[in-house]
From TrEMBL:
It catalyses: Cleavage of hydrophobic, N-terminal signal or leader sequences from secreted and periplasmic proteins. Its EC number is 3.4.21.89. GO terms for molecular function: signal peptidase activity. It is found in: Cell membrane; Membrane. InterPro entries: LexA/Signal_pep-like_sf, Pept_S26A_signal_pept_1, Peptidase_S26. Pfam families: Peptidase_S26 (PF10502). The lineage of its organism: Bacteria, Bacillati, Actinomycetota, Actinomycetes, Kitasatosporales. This is Signal peptidase I. NCBIfam families: sigpep_I_bact. It is a single-pass type II membrane protein.
């Protein structure tokens, strides 16, 4: 009997240690994931419908803080440019320095350096622009369009400006990675731009951060639940041992 008691106590101590460790690691992952996300991302409310259906007016998005040099074609970015009203705006990058952007070719597609680009993210199946245009993007600048081309006031509106509607890379402050509210959806990099020189940007760490938070929650709950369950199991085992020792059934 005494040997059994020592074994139970040992298992109890080991279980308590593992339970405490699970809670501690869970807290680190949970808080660390949130802290990491707070450093890398900033929330932003989309002001207009120009990026529908990718993001809608009033959506709360998570935008990764990036330098303009990191931006690639296909990215949805937050930028501020005095010529555009000197307020934060959200548009999609379709051209970078050195590109020749044109619309629309025979199939109604946008072309980048003569290569037609499929744009499944557009709101309608109409041609990629209601009005034909061409533009050459100066080095160090970006050409930006909205996903709802019918209502978007984008680079096409500024074609007569210096730089033909492009904005400096330095104007970009963040890249939108996900809609936090109300959809809760990730914004994927467009495959069509991946075939062009330079490809598309790498996905941000948001999924990894959310994974750390989720694992942290599981570990905290598992560690917290273990104690009561283990205590109940031990009491039940001891009661059965007493009943067996006294012959009670």
């Amino acid at each position: 009997m005494s040997g059994t008691g020592r074994t139970d106590d040992g298992r109890g101590r080991l279980g308590s240690m593992l339970s405490g460790l699970a809670v501690a690691v869970g807290c680190v992952l949970f808080l660390g994931g949130f802290a990491w996300a707070a450093v890398v991302y900033r929330p932003y409310t989309v002001p207009t419908e120009s990026m529908t259906p990718t993001v809608n007016a009033g959506d709360r998005v998570l935008a990764q803080r990036v330098d303009g040099s990191e931006v690639r074609r296909g990215d949805v970015v937050v930028f501020t440019d005095q010529a555009w009203g000197d307020m934060p705006m959200v548009k999609r990058v379709v051209g970078i320095g050195g590109d020749k952007i044109a619309c629309c070719e025979k199939g109604g597609l946008l072309t980048v350096n003569g290569i037609p680009v499929e744009e499944p993210y557009l709101r309608t199946t109409d041609p990629a622009s209601g009005n034909d245009f061409t533009a050459e993007v100066p080095k160090g600048k970006l050409f930006l369009l909205g996903d709802d081309r019918r209502v978007s006031l984008d680079s096409r509106v500024h074609l007569e400006d210096r730089g033909q509607g492009s904005v400096p890379r330095s104007a970009v402050t963040a890249r939108v990675d996900a809609v936090a509210w109300p959809l809760g959806a990730m914004i994927e990099r467009p495959k069509a731009f991946a075939a062009l020189p330079g490809g598309v940007s790498s996905a941000g760490p948001l999924k990894l951060q959310l994974g750390a938070v989720a694992v942290g929650v599981v570990l905290i709950l598992a560690g917290a639940v273990y104690g009561p369950v283990a205590a109940r199991t031990t009491r039940s085992k001891r009661n059965k041992q007493r009943q067996a020792a006294t012959g009670v059934r």
